[in-house]
């Protein structure tokens, strides 16, 4: 019998093969204690290998166990070490493009090494969960045999380069950005100038400004295709943005160049990488993204540094070697173009066509979107899809940043038959790109940073909205809902029409899952604006929160008023007042369902936090003051909406001081009201002692208070005021978490 290694033979590219051999050797050195754990941690991350959450052996399957036709396997139990229990592997897919052979290999890997599920991420990657680290070298080799790598899918590196899934077939694009995204990804992969970053670096490509496309505004480097006429000919270039990013405190990217010629794309990306590596923060990871460097230097000074770097870089033929092939870059269709005929379509086809089909600019062809609930695709479905793609789409499969997949270059006449085949394997759901198509990060399912169940809430939204989709008003069908399990915005909640991120609160000794409600984001215009949290509601009330907000929009919107304009005109203060009763939590004895999360039958608690009198007094006092801080930061948001940037900044600062006072009073009840005293006592009692520190963020949120206390901005702008509000909200959430840890200490619970 031929082994898979013999079967692969020389299919693995030499460079990828050597890298995997080196990684396997590093694994062995780590086992022998000859390689430092910190060094190995960054090594494995750069190979796409993460640890994952097990939560005492309980695994919340959510959509996987409920809707995927292929069974996902048994619950896996084990300690949280990469050597004793499986973790997660991320697989890098430049601009989301795969072919049927690659998809079949991914299906095999999911089935043989994982739980039989391929998970599509918001960066067009695939993730496999419950993968044991001992299996990763073999897994990497098999992926390499079909041209796929996991290199730099994680770690302080250039992450997967994303691009619009309609690139090359879109009606409004300036030109096809696919070959540029491919070239940029290949050029920077393993590049010596991109190996010394303090944090990750994300790049995207968009074909036009108006749509979401590559979401250029939220990337470290975002390139939007533009053309201009020079000397009687059309010249290609890019409107280049730098310094964007979501995360805990989002930043809008700044315009670096309104027209960067195509031949300057790769050298400029290299120069930006060199400046980021040289000047970017290395010690404080909380401020190590390039967005903080751009904010610190200002875009003009940052541009000067990059242009100086560009001048001294030695020439590299790879900068332009790919350009002669760009005009010939073209995907191949497997069927001739033909219009949709008048034959009787299968049941459900009309609804699917309305939401899941995009007519290409090439007459007679269409793009079909496959809606993947929560981004999950079973191994069985993936294999069947590969065969379907060969028949109808050829090599032209891509993933999307909304966790779906698309088949391109489908002859319109084949759409009914394609739909019937997709429906047979559970991939015929309609609603792509609508309010039903909810984006969610892994949350508490597998992420160690997850606070609340983003996937569980998303599944509940899909169930409720899907049941009444055809009764929904057209004006809300296209709203985007995005959910993150914590403040880090992996679910992209900042750029949703309605976003949510997980938090927690403690009510009389019981922890309660909550979600902050985020309004004001804009998905179109390449993530045109970021939303802000306006209040935290218990997870059980979030579906009703959505109902009220959309209901108010339908009742009171002006003719043709967009949802974003409605939020601005009504005002977040009025919206919060409308939701006030939904922010409250009933006593545990009245309704215990509020004390568990969506999709998780267990009580959302680390144990009974106790109801002793001393703890009760401290908790009551702390909660009262934290509520006051939350009110201040909400008022700051109102000021921001009114363009009172100085007022927003001032109130955000006062909110942080109030939250710090809430904690200090637990040890020093007579603390004076002066901010200097509060900040000094907070530093001495909670920062220096590390009481404020948590396992993952350390004390970084305290630095928001210290930095703002040390120097107030002379003339706050919209961007700096927005940042102040975000930082204040994060500091208050950290104060809540600190208080909860203190309560557990008092009650003797760990």
Account of the 3D structure:
- The protein has 750 residues and is an alpha+beta fold.
- It folds into five domains: 4-144, Alpha-Beta Plaits (2-Layer Sandwich), CATH 3.30.70; 169-328, Sulfite Reductase Hemoprotein, domain 1; 349-424, Alpha-Beta Plaits, CATH 3.30.70.3340; 434-605, Sulfite Reductase Hemoprotein, domain 1; 606-750, Four Helix Bundle (Hemerythrin (Met), subunit A) (Up-down Bundle), CATH 1.20.120.330.
- 40% of the residues lie in helices and 14% in strands.
- It contains 24 helices and 20 strands.
- The strands form four sheets. It has a five-stranded antiparallel sheet. Strands 3-14-15-12-11 form a five-stranded antiparallel sheet. The chain has a five-stranded mixed sheet with strand order 6-7-8-9-10.
- Strand 4 and strand 5 (126-131) form a beta hairpin.
- The model is unreliable at 1-10, 56-80 and 606-620 (pLDDT under 50).
């Amino acid at each position: 019998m031929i082994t898979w290694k013999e079967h692969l033979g020389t299919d693995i590219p030499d460079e990828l093969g050597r890298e995997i051999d080196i990684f396997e050797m590093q694994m062995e050195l780590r086992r022998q204690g000859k390689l430092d754990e910190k060094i190995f941690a960054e090594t494995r991350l750069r190979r796409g290998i993460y640890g994952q959450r097990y939560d005492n052996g309980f695994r919340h399957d959510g959509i996987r166990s409920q809707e995927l036709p292929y069974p996902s396997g048994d619950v896996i139990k084990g300690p949280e070490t990469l050597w004793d229990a499986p973790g997660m592997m991320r697989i890098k897919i430049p601009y989301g493009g795969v072919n049927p052979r690659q998809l079949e290999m991914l299906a095999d890997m999911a089935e043989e090494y994982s739980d039989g599920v391929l998970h599509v991420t918001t960066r067009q990657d695939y993730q496999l969960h419950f993968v044991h680290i001992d299996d990763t070298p073999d897994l990497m080799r098999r992926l390499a045999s079909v041209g796929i790598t996991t290199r730099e899918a994680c770690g302080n590196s250039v992450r997967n380069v994303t691009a619009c899934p309609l690139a090359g077939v879109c009606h409004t694009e300036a030109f096809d950005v696919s070959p540029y995204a491919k070239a940029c990804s290949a050029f920077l992969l393993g590049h010596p100038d991109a190996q010394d970053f303090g944090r990750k670096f994300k790049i995207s490509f968009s074909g036009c400004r108006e749509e979401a496309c590559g979401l250029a505004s939220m990337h470290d480097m975002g390139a939007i295709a533009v053309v201009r006429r020079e000397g009687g000919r059309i010249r290609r270039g890019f409107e280049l943005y730098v310094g964007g990013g979501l995360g805990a405190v989002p930043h809008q990217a700044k315009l670096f160049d309104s027209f960067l010629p195509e031949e300057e794309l790769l050298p400029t990306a290299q120069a930006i990488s060199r400046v980021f590596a040289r000047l970017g923060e290395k010690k404080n990871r909380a401020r190590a993204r390039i967005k903080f460097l751009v904010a610190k230097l200002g875009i003009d000074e940052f541009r000067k540094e990059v242009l100086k770097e560009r001048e001294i870089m030695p020439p590299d033929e790879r900068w332009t070697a790919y350009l002669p092939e760009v005009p010939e870059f073209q995907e191949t269709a497997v069927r001739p173009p033909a219009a949709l005929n008048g034959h009787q379509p299968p049941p459900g086809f009309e609804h699917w066509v309305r939401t899941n089909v995009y007519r290409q600019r090439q007459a007679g062809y269409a793009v079909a979107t496959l809606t993947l609930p929560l981004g999950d695709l079973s191994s069985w479905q993936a294999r069947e899809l590969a065969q379907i793609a060969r028949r109808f789409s050829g090599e032209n499969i891509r993933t999307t940043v909304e966790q779906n997949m698309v088949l391109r270059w489908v002859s319109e006449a084949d759409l009914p038959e394609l739909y019937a085949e997709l429906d047979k394997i559970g991939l015929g759901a309609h609603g792509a790109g609508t309010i039903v198509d909810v984006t969610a990060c892994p949350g508490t399912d597998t992420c160690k940073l997850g606070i609340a169940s983003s996937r569980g809430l998303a599944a509940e939204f899909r169930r409720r909205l899907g049941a009444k989709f055809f009764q929904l008003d057209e004006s809300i069908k296209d709203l985007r809902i995005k959910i993150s399990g914590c403040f880090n915005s992996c679910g992209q909640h900042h750029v949703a029409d309605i976003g949510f991120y997980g938090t927690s609160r403690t009510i009389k000794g019981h922890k309660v899952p909550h979600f902050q409600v985020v309004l004001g984001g804009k998905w179109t215009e390449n993530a045109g604006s970021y939303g802000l949290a306006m209040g935290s509601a218990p997870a059980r009330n979030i579906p009703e929160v959505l109902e009220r907000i959309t209901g108010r929009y339908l009742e009171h919107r002006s003719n043709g008023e967009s949802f974003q304009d409605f939020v601005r005109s009504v005002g977040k203060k009025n919206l919060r007042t409308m939701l006030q009763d939904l922010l409250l939590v009933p006593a545990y004895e009245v309704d215990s369902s509020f004390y568990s999360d969506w999709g998780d039958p267990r009580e959302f608690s680390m144990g009974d936090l106790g109801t002793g009198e001393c703890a009760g007094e401290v908790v009551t006092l702390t909660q009262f003051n934290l509520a006051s801080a939350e009110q201040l930061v909400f008022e700051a948001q109102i000021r921001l909406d009114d363009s009172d940037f100085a007022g927003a900044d001032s109130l955000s600062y006062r909110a942080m001081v109030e939250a710090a006072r809430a904690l200090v009073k637990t040890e020093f009840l007579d603390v004076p009201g002066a901010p200097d005293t509060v900040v000094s006592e907070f530093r001495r009692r909670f920062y220096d002692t590390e009481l404020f520190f948590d396992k993952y963020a350390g004390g970084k949120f305290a630095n928001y208070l210290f930095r703002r206390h040390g120097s107030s901005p002379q003339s706050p702008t919209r961007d700096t005021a927005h940042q102040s509000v975000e930082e204040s909200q994060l500091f208050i959430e950290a104060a809540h978490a600190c208080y909860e840890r203190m309560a557990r200490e008092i009650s003797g619970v760990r």
